[in-house]
Amino acid sequence: MRKRMEEHFAETPAVYHKKAKTLAVMSGKGGVGKSNVSLNTALAFIDKGKKVLLIDLDVGMGNIDILLGRQGRYTIMDVLNQQMPFHRALSTGPKGISYISGGTGLDTMFELNREKWAFFLKELSAVLSHFDYVLFDMGAGLSKDQLPFALSADDILIVTTPEPTSIMDAYSAIKHLALNGRELKLKVIVNRCISQKDGISAYTRLSNTVTAFLQQQLEYAGTIPEDSLVSKAVVEQQPFLIKHPRSKLSRAVYLLADSLLEAGTAKKEGSRSFIDKLSSFLRRGNAT
Ligand SMILES: Nc1ncnc2c1ncn2[C@@H]1O[C@H](COP(=O)(O)OP(=O)(O)O)[C@@H](O)[C@H]1O
Ligand SMILES: [Mg+2]
Fold first, then answer.
1. pLDDT tens digit sequence for 41-92
2. Averaged over 211-235, what is the pLDDT?
3. 154 Rama class: left (phi>0) / alpha (psi -120 to 50) / beta
């Protein structure tokens, strides 16, 4: 039985042969705008002709459903526990975005057995092959369950605000990632900027510190202005990119999307796939 499961695990990466680029959106501190940035960036990708899946991994605080004013019927836990096919668990939102929430109990992910993980990975792999981009909206900081997802993603997008506390927390999160992973592609989004200058100077401070102390390179992805349209959108449960596509705020998100898309979907020759990396993290970290 054990041998069969191991074969199943070994096979999993081969199923993944498509193009989806995986982006993990994370932060040090909570409340910096990860969910709003993930959702609106995902919608901007769709406007640029991409097929996008948004996976909410923010346990307990997950709120993509709420931001969309809709209730997804299923969560990732249905795929993990009830072994529901992943594609059946997805919901569709505005502009045809596919999304799924993490649901409650995601924090017990690591207590899952090998069989459930094998099923999950196989399903995730199949689902990935239907999308161009998959965004993971992560929780604040990095829990044990989320770390493998972040470390396996093609790009890690770190959201911070220009506040020194937020920058410091972003630094700590990057340190945690750098200690656990290799060849990380880290991109920084500075949200809630009074001016673009403000955002770039915050990025420069963070980047200099990370280079000096962690010998890790960061890339600048973009800045997003402070704008009351964000909280309005949250209250109205309608993404600002849909309601106010021509606002300065939305224009900044389209620029951010452009810069992320420009980086391309092409993978480096020989670089391992998301599923490949995730399954080896999971194999190491758990499964009884
Ligand atoms: N660019 C912004 N301008 C103004 N307020 C913002 C902006 N981004 C986020 N906020 C505020 O921060 C709150 C938290 O945002 P959210 O995306 O839920 O953060 P996180 O997912 O990081 O916890 C929003 O409800 C909004 O009130
Ligand atoms: Mg959030």
1. 999 999 999 999 999 987 666 688 889 988 778 888 888 888 899 999 999 9
2. 96
3. alpha
Domain holding 152: CATH number? 3.40.50.300
Bridge partners, residue 56, by sequence:
137
Residue 7 has φ and ψ, to the nearest 5°, of -65, -40
Ligand 1 in contact with 226 (CB < 6 A)? yes
pLDDT band at 132 (very low <50, low <70, confident <90, very high): very high
172: CA distance to ligand 2 center in Å? 18
Centroid of ligand 2 to alpha carbon of 4 (angstroms): 38
Q: Which domain holds residue 13?
A: 2-277
Is 286 within a domain? no
Phi, psi torsion values for 11, nearest 5 degrees: -75, -30
CB-ligand 1 contact for 237 (6 Å cutoff): no
Confidence of residue 288 (pLDDT cuts 50, 70, 90): very low
Split into its structural domains, the chain has a count of: 1
Residue 214 belongs to a domain:
yes
Within a domain: 56: yes
